[in-house]
Amino acid sequence: MATMIMLMVLLSGCSTTEKVWEQPHYYESVSAFTVNENNNLFIATGKEHAYVFEISKAFKQALIVSREITFTPSLSDFTLRESGEITGDITLTIASGALSEQIKNELVRLGFSQDDNMTLHYTLNGNRYQLEETGDTIQLANHYPVKVIQASSTVSNVGKVLITPGAVVVDSALMVTTGIPTAIIYGVLGAYMYADYPTE
What we know:
Radius of gyration: 20 Å
Largest sheet: 13 strands, mixed
Strand content: 35-45%
Shape: globular
């Protein structure tokens, strides 16, 4: 009996220790992934924050291709630092069987593997911004839950960002305040519910 009680105490202690050492984190519900035709910014929009990543031209092109063919995106846990910098990995996958040779060759050119399930891995590095209220946004039909691990209990937003279907305005100490009112903002990696979503 004494042995049993001791075992229960030890197990309870392990559980408590795990909770003490567990890194602070939150789950972001990503409602949109967007790219802008005028630059190489990839923006993930959450409930209260926007995550802005500078991406390569090849990865941007892969994201634009996702408007024509359906990739399965997979997101790792992301790490958010005290400065507001955020890092994580994204993987795009598609079965090659239903693709034409022309599309397969294009995907290989963009960095996809040549397996039966063609995959592209990409590391995202960017910053977290406070998302300003806007009444007219692009919304994914199905949101993506993403775990964000906070490397520090205190995290600053880098600045503010306003996103609408026709404009992105970034206000940040890291870059000159930017407004692109005539740009076309493309939703990528999913089906969108915005009625006037641009198709060209």
